[in-house]
């Protein structure tokens, strides 16, 4: 590897933390969805780093599955956000009390 394994894992950790901060700090559903995507990309970076470190292809296969799940999650998530926006008129998470009894 050209870049040290520890540095790549540090990049993955920082990226994961940025996604977590994006989820926790914002009250916008679209930003929360973006935060989840960033966290999934961080997991993909860690898997690729491990695969390159130990010369195994399983990490790359996991990344392909992560990308597929991420694409499905975005399409379903955006459909739910559009549906909720049409129902409430807002993408603010505080406006959603649909599931409360």
Quick recap:
77% of the residues lie in helices and 0% in strands. The chain is an all-alpha fold and 101 residues long. The model has no long low-confidence stretch (mean pLDDT 92).
Tell me what the structure shows.
The protein has a domain at 27-89: Orthogonal Bundle (Helix Hairpins). It is elongated. The mean pLDDT is 92. It has helices at 5-25, 29-54, 58-88. By secondary structure, the chain is mainly alpha-helical.
Any key phrases for this structure?
101 residues; mainly alpha; Helix Hairpins; 3 helices; 77% helix; 0% strand
Strand content: under 5%
How far apart are the termini? 55 Å
What about the largest sheet? none
Please write the string of helix (H) and strand (E) elements: HHH
Rounded mean pLDDT is: 92
What share of residues is helical?
over 70%
CATH topology of one domain: Helix Hairpins
The strand count comes to 0
**Rg, Å, rounded:** 17 Å
| Helical run tally | 3
Q: What's the oligomerization state?
A: single chain
- Helix/strand structural class: mainly alpha
